[in-house]
Amino acid sequence: MSTTTTTPTSDPAYSSYQHLLVRVDEATGVAVVTLNRPAQLNAMNVALHREVGDVWRDLDRDARVRCSVVTGAGKAFSAGGDLDMAAAMTRDAGTRRDVMRDARQIVRGMIDAEKPIVSAVNGVAVGAGMVVAVTADVVVASEDAKFGDGHTKLGVAAGDHACAVWPLAMGLAKAKLYLLTGDMLSAAAAERLGLVSEVVAPDRALPRALELAARIAAGPPHAVRATKFALNQWLRDAALKSMDLSLALEMLNFAESDVREGIAAIREKRAPSFSKL
Fold it and tell me: CA-to-CA distance for 179 and 170, rounded, in angstroms?
């Protein structure tokens, strides 16, 4: 007996996206945004990195949508920025500027999006993937999910969201511990530290996220959006200046030698030998 497979498709309004699938359930008002590079564990190339910053604007303009869920295709949420993108950043200042702009847009786009965002974290969420996972308004993680910032292990400053979101969620002492070491966090530890809203059984992250998103979407839209805006003022007032600084320092590090060694060590599956100053 033969079987056939079909290529997943997006809602026509979002067909221009190359590495995102977007489907809108008009009955519930929930849009599902799927990072769709499963063969690469949804690692972000330049195109996906840009799309994840742009999509929230488009969802805000879509009158059918009242809440969004973001998840990853396959067995991972996202393994972070892919090594080809990182290597290009070491060689070209223009690429660094573009990636810095898009990294800012991911965080600010999710924070400033009018409509709430729920993440369904399946598998690993590292680096740029963790940015999307934990900058969401509600974070639902599978028990087997793992989280990590990963920047310092690569040889660059903990940029993107980490210097903004982590201290507010878990306090400065714990944020320093995990960002300076680059250690991974289990789903249970991430929940205990305040990065994750709920931990659920394996394969339940997306169903639970959809359930919560449908409840949020069924609420009074102006009150819900106003509440999100007010809560995120904590991030705008207290955190985003730190993010801008950390991003600038991260891009500076991409012009230095340690990141080239970090990329090589990952590719060669060995321990890095960073500079000794």
Answer: 12
* CATH fold of 12-204+217-268: 2-enoyl-CoA Hydratase; Chain A, domain 1 (3.90.226)
Q: What is the model's pTM?
A: 0.93
Q: State pLDDT tens for residues 139-180.
A: 999 999 999 998 999 999 997 888 889 999 999 999 999 999
Closest by Cα among 163, 136, 51, 146 to 102? 51
CA 127, CA 182: separation in Å to the nearest integer? 10
Buried b (16+ CB within 10 A) or exposed e, 242-271: ebbebbeebbebbeeebbbbbbebeeeeee
> How are strands ordered across the β-sheet holding 117-121?
20-25, 30-35, 67-72, 117-121, 138-142, 198-200
Question: Which residue is associated with the tokens 């639970």?
Answer: 208
As given in the structure block, the two tokens for residue 216 are 């949020």
Instruction: Name the residue ranges covered by the structural domains of the chain.
Output: 12-204+217-268
